[in-house]
Amino acid sequence: MSGFYRVATAIPRITVADIKTNVEEIISLIHGANEEGANVVVFPELCVTGYTCADLFLQPHFQNEAMSGILEIMDDTRHMEDLVIIVGAPYYYRGALYNCAFVINRGNVMGIVPKQYIPNYGEFYESRWFKSGREIPAGARDTGFDAPVSTNLIFGNDMDFLFGVELCEDVWTPNPPSAALAQAGAEVIFNLSASNEMVGKHDYLVSLLSQQSARTISAYVYASAGIGESTTDLVFAGNGLVFENGKLIASAKRFCRESQLVVADIDLNKIKAMRAKTTSFNSYNINQYELVNLSLGDSLDVDDIRRDFDPHPFIPKDERSVQERCEEIFNIQVWGLAQRMEASHSKRAVVGISGGLDSTLALLVTARTFDVLGWDRSQIIGVTMPGFGTTGRTYNNAINLMKALGVEIREISIKDACIQHFKDINLPETDRSVTYENSQARERTQILMDIANRDGGLVVGTGDLSELALGWATYNGDQMSMYGVNASVPKTLVKYLVKYVAEQPDMAEAKPYLLDIYDTPISPELLPADEKGEIAQKTEDLVGPYELHDFFIYNYMRFGYSPEVLLHMACNAFKGTYDRPFIKKWLSTFFRRFFNQQFKRSAMPDGPKVGSVTLSPRGDWRMPSDASSALWLDALETLD
Fold this sequence. Notes:
This protein is α/β, with parallel strands linked by helices. It is built from 19 helices and 22 strands. The chain has a seven-stranded mixed beta sheet, with helices on one face. Strands 5-4-3-2-1-16 form a six-stranded mixed beta sheet. It has a five-stranded parallel beta sheet with strand order 20-19-18-21-22, sandwiched between helices.
């Protein structure tokens, strides 16, 4: 099961009080939703009659014809086995008239949900005609439809898809019914509405629904009245909106003169995963809600999902958002380090500078931290430690960057110390194994730690989130520091942060070196350079593209997608860039390394959380170091 379901919001062109014509248009849209493979389709409130019928609602003949319209919809849709229809109509029940949502499945009304909050202000005076559904006693049923009539109904199936219904004004109140419905288990909220247009109101509506979707950790599907409603005093533009945990994923065209059907595939994996880890989102009065079982059909096959996925989920889409995100992250890093510097009574910071992206970002954070604290940058000790794989490009960038930033520069070659160490452990001179590489990383860490001890400083770590996820760090080497400022910054975002700082006014002198570092291939430079003196050991040739791994990290860590869904999403996101076998290969590498390298994360140093994904064993990710990856790798192996 993919966990993705297809929903539709339908805005019919109606004729006020012409029930027959309206029902024909509604049925036409229902057939369209069924052909699209939708699981649920929702219509605006009172769409069977039209919202603007005014005192016509009070006429018994009009009420009866509305119910005849519901019967016609039921009869026409009996063969639609896995489509749920939610349609609005006036409903007379035990001496009072209610504005209701009729939930129809397989030709039967399965539940009737009345509107709870009846407006009586300005242009809205529904209380002239309708009563609040809260006045209906618990356990009420319509004997003709043999269906419950209640505000406390949750529909669906207890395992896969549960939804609740509210109507228009309900969501505008201080205590929307959708909040309690969500806490009682509803993962999707459908809103039948007739909200008029006013200057500025649409933006407020979108913000309101987005916030409610985010607050309830739900998908929110909204259908509002449009063309055909009376314009005597108001105009209705036909809003069809689909949100998923606060994000707008589909919308109708406003002021459209034809009926509209907007279809969207919603991701209940995401909703379930986020609710499971949000412990403040507790079940609430579950026993007060009646569960109405429906035939919704299964979730979509992965190949049927109609949805694009962001290949770079850590990176905002537009330039302004990138700048704002970088500024915020950089400030979090700086503030975290500033607090740690003061708390540890350290007056100096020690940073190993390789001329690569990660150490550059760590140095930039440290320099800005000293600015914030009012300390002289000369108290920062920048240490470059050339080794067997250091190239002229990275070495020169390291030296020039430290000069431009005004930090103390120390150069300590690790070659002689490593050669001696190789002799001590009987490692042949020609050996290029992991021992050869890790010895260099540990030698560098030893130098940094000892300088910090001698000079009363604090070693600022350089490793990033992507390296931690893959274990692409030497245990007790570059894996270790006294405070890791990059620990929750993914590799794809490190580049943006370096470029962001390079564009700051006070970085004019450092800018050329920062931009060259931005363009330098990612490498640990632990193997000798090639015959041209250029980097021979490129990380992404060995471990896979970081943009792929960051995609895996974000979607697996946040939402726990299965290998099948994750592979499908990646193939969609990187279509035209990487083919399926290539993505599958590196996804396998991701799962294997993510599990067997947990021991490095279990011993990782402190560092600030900057985003929604982090791997701190004290915070967001706690996993046994000896957990098996077999479940995920076996599932991946079965896929073509």
